[in-house]
Amino acid sequence: MTYQNYSLKQLQQIDAAHHLHPFTDHKELRETGSRIITHANGPFIYDSEGAEILDGMAGLWCVSIGYGRDELADAAYAQMKELPYYNSFFKCSTPTPVLLSKKLAEIAPKHINQVFYGSSGSEANDTALRLVRHYWALEGKPEKNRIISRKMGYHGSTVAGTSLGGMDLMHKQLGGAVPNIVHVMMPYAFELALPGESDHDFGLRAAKAVEDAILEAGPDKVAAFIGEPVMGAGGVKIPPASYWPEVQRICRKYDVLLMLDEVITGYGRTGEWFAAQTFGIEPDTITTAKALTSGYQPLSALLVGDRIAAALVEKGGEFYHGYTYSGHPVACAVALKNLEIIEREGLVDRVRNDTGPYFAQALQERIAGHNLVGEVRSIGLMGAIEIVKDKATRERFLPGGSAAVTVRDHAIGQGMMLRATGDTMILSPPLIWTGDTIDMACERIGKALDLAQADLRKL
Ligand code: PXG
After folding, report:
1. For the segment 400-417, what is each residue's pLDDT rounded down to a tens digit?
2. Residue-wise pLDDT tens digits, 110-135
3. 122: Cβ below 6 Å to ligand 1?
4. 20 to 30 Å CA-CA from 412: which of 34, 47, 146, 238?
5. What share of residues in the chain are helix, strand, coil (percent, to 5)?
6. Entry pTM
7. What's the distance, CA 39 to chain centroid?
8. Residues 262 and 155 occupy one common structural domain
């Protein structure tokens, strides 16, 4: 029986009766009912009422090649018929994770040549945390096990992901984080730069917070630093150009491993295959997921640099870690086809040379001037719009976050899906967007801002 046999109301009732959603106030959801998305094509999603909505978030930062790609469905179908599942434990392998690993080693930075698979970004970060601690134990330094992370960082929702992340509300509900993880300031100039402080100096100061944390713990106690190259869920916070090279310099100085979480930035979003390349840094691990399959299958890949891989191989001994679905043949088949399409259509170059710069210009020329907007910023095809009450002073509306939700609701009403996080609107569209799609998005966002402004004035 297909869903078409149910009315929207029935689906909402069943949803409310049986389905616990992620990051949701369930009491509130039961009062409003969920929005049910039934199908999608290219850059558009459609809800059960037939509304066509331009998807400014690529699903949840993942559907890079857009919806409705038969080639991915065909790849999954063929693989399911040939071999739907076999495990990668006990010295077994299947062809698609083998070939995907080769492909990932080709597109990753030069010094990264090994891959460990999971099904989600959270799982990949669990792997990363365990792997760097295992690495130092293999090196005879088990006490070098602290991880430095950042406030407002998002690294997933498992216990390790939540512990690595710097979201206070998540920590409060955790009731005990993984020990030996500390959080330092984030590189968010819009709110944290001092009056008169240049972007460059602010970037160096934010990097110095990493050095201070290393020195406070003692370098022989610190295993690694982890960060998203551009903080995503925390509000598309793009660090000043001075930040990452300085963080890398500091990590090298104290022999601290550098872990990048590229679950959002990986596979072309910033105009290179990986943001490590955009920022010119050489991390020891890169966590990836989402756009690896354009969201058509759940799959994550932890890319592991030569230094850690060499210790694993040369020192030997079993790394007691892995998932039933590590290297899932169907997910890997879909990833291979997805990467082939990204390459064939030149999407990474297009973001770097064409749509990325056009997106930046369009936001600047058509959105930044609006009365409700304190700042726009973007890198490649990810962008943020800061919502403020007063453009000059950057005073926010109260209660915090309410104005951005008003903008978002109007945007959806205008046929434009984007996300509100705190007082920031965020955009992370499919990489197939063209100049025309960007124009359409700006027009709809502009209207949403006007409508929101009218509402907010009434308050
Ligand atoms: N790292 C980063 C940087 C992420 O953005 C994860 C890890 C975890 O991935 P999984 O696959 O376990 O969800 C993410 C996920 C949002 C939002 O509201 C962002 C994510 C997930 C859900 C919501 O922007 N990012």
Report:
1. 999 999 999 999 999 999
2. 999 999 999 999 999 999 999 999 99
3. yes
4. 238
5. 45, 15, 40
6. 0.98
7. 23
8. yes
Contact 278, 229 (CB under 8 A): yes
Closest Cα to residue 278, out of 294, 259, 262?
Answer: 262
Question: 155 CA to middle of ligand 1, Å?
Answer: 7
Ligand 1 within 6 A of 261 CB? yes
The last residue of one of the domains, among 291, 318, 344, is: 344
- Count how many Cα atoms sit within 13 Å of the Cα of residue 319 in the half-sphere of its side chain: 25
Q: How far is CA 48 from CA 35, 91, 296, 346, in A?
A: 8, 47, 21, 34
Closest CA to 362 of 394, 385, 389: 385
The DSSP element (H or E) to which 77 belongs, if any, is helix 70-82
Residue-range definition of the domain harbouring residue 171: 71-344
Mark which of 293, 317, 344 sits at the end of a domain.
Answer: 344
Contact status, residue 145 vs residue 224, Cβ threshold 8 Å: no
Q: How far is it, in rounded angstroms, from Cα 274 to Cα 351?
A: 12
- Give every CB contact of residue 298 below 8 A, 6+ residues apart in sequence: 119, 120, 325, 331
Q: Is 26 exposed, middle or buried (0-12, 13-18, 19+ CB in 10 A)?
A: exposed
**Cβ–Cβ < 8 Å for 235, 151:** no
Total domains in the fold of the chain = 2
Q: Is the CB of 264 under 6 A from ligand 1?
A: yes
Q: Relative to the CA of 290, which ligand 1 atom is closest?
A: 11
Q: How many separate helices (H) and strands (E) can be counted in the chain?
A: 18, 15
Contact 76, 438 (CB under 8 A): no
Structure tokens at 52: 């066509």
- Please say whether the beta carbons of 287 and 125 come within 8 A: yes
Q: CA dist 90 to 86, 310, 333, 394, Å?
A: 11, 21, 21, 58
CATH code: domain of residue 224: 3.40.640.10
Q: How many residues does the chain have?
A: 459
List the alpha helices (DSSP H) in 318-434. 329-344, 347-350, 356-362, 402-413
- Determine which residue's CA is closest to atom 20 belonging to ligand 1: 233
CA-based diameter of the chain, in Å? 68
Q: Is residue 365 part of a domain?
A: yes
- Residues of the chain with confidence (pLDDT) below 70: 1-2, 458-459
DSSP 416-428: EE-EEETTEEEE-
